[in-house]
Design goal:
3 domains, three-stranded antiparallel sheet, Arc Repressor Mutant, subunit A, single chain, Endonuclease, Chain A, nine-stranded mixed sheet, alpha+beta
Length: 338
Amino acid sequence: MLQALGLGLAEEAVYTALLARPTASARDLARQTGFEQPETTRILLDLSARGLVAIAAEAGSGAPDPADRGAARYRLTPPSVALAPLLVEQRNALQRAETAFSMLTEQYRSTAAHPAGSVMEVVVGVEQVAHRFHQLQRGAQRELLVFLLGEPIAVPREDADASESSALDRGVDFRVVAAKDYLDAPDVGRDVREAIAAGLELRLADSLPLKMVVSDRERAMVPLEMADSGDEPSAIVVHRSGLLTALVHLFEREWDSARPLYTTPTGVRAESSADGQPTEGELEVLALLLAGISDRRVASQLGLSIRTVERRTRRLMDLAGADSRLQLGWYAARAGWF
């Protein structure tokens, strides 16, 4: 936790151990942390020099003798006072790094050998393709747009899942369109359910023109087809340009026409397109159910048997590809059944 402020693991352990005590000696803290007493004393003196802890005076004894290190007791300096300068220092360092990043990026663009070089680069080889893929996913701060189809070539699925989890943990808006056969691979259904639960939005398309990942609408990566199995994997990385804009538009078009995926207790299902439309009688049943009326009361109001109500409800759920009545209501509203 405190490593981000420049403290090492041992320093953080001693600091947090002292946090729970008004005062403590090096001997006390050594027992609590498992460090040797000389090492604990050294850490305490270092923390004291940095203003994070202070040597506590015993009541009525005046100031302690700094030379008597074994008997000295230590207390924390209030964190709001001691840690604030470290936080400011880290913020300033991050700002300097961001400035350097912007300058280097701009310099790279301005010194490209020719215009095409600043728009597109070709990456060849398994390690290079995987490295650039992870750069795009782990560098995303706002949004990731992904097309999935076929088997992974340069980036194993487990490695892609790790980058995906990292992006979701950072709060990145993550949208994926997958080809309909993508879920046929072993264990993909389980991984997809976990990703959707973590915040990933996933839709299913009958087919997709290419694989792709777009990071923050700033750059995209598109794998290139291999002429034969002996060729090395390769990809193009597209930077901000009209080509990148076209790729983003392609994604949005496929996203709008794709079918949303949702999780069920037994797996992942896609919203299915109905082969037929609900009958008037089925819509009468649905309208009453969505109003919160029980099956028995629906049957009574419409002069039907409960079995007929259940059969009509089941057919509506089949048309909608729904596993619950809540999903059925969502589909009915989206499909314009009313």
